[in-house]
Amino acid sequence: MLRTGGTPLPWERKVYRNRHGRGNRQATFGIRMPRYRTKAGMFDSMVVAQLKRLNAAWPQLLDGVQCAVEDVPPSAPVSWETRRAFLSQSFPANHGIPARIVLYRRPIEQRAVGRVDLQLIIRDELVSCLADLSGKHPEDIDPDWGF
Fold first, then answer.
1. Strands (E) located in the chain
2. Total-model pTM
3. How many structural domains is the chain composed of?
4. Pfam families of this UniProt entry (predicted)?
5. Mind listing the pLDDT tens digit for each residue in 81-122?
6. For position 112, what pLDDT does the model report?
7. What is the domain range of residue 77?
8. What CATH code is carried by the domain that includes residue 95?
9. Is the dihedral of CA 118, 124, 128, 129 positive or negative?
10. Crossing angle for the helix pair 115-134 and 39-57, nearest 10 degrees?
């Protein structure tokens, strides 16, 4: 429907003002902008980037390994655990369950000083867990491990 004069009604336009007439009804910032992303989302994307990098170099190591991110480690370690994992934990495959790597987001974020340091800690934890699962030395998987 058009009004007299050929202009469309306000609710038929693509962008129109909110019900009080003070602003547009659209997002303040785009979904690709840094402010839209949460800390957890940025952490997940860093983990995915490191996994892609490791998969390009060692596809056979990551074959059949599941990776997960949790906020904090469990409060009480299970009786069969030899040590309490603060930053990450690896579980070997057994009884039809694939091998798993779990990274704990909050302890890693607390230990990191900046974004680059956070990426390095994620890389080191993933490499050390893969080394535990495969029986290799971490330096064999990634020569920059620990720097």
1. 65-70, 88-91, 99-104
2. 0.71
3. 1
4. Zincin_1
5. 666 558 998 899 888 889 999 999 999 999 999 999 999 999
6. 92
7. 34-141
8. 3.30.2010.20
9. positive
10. 50
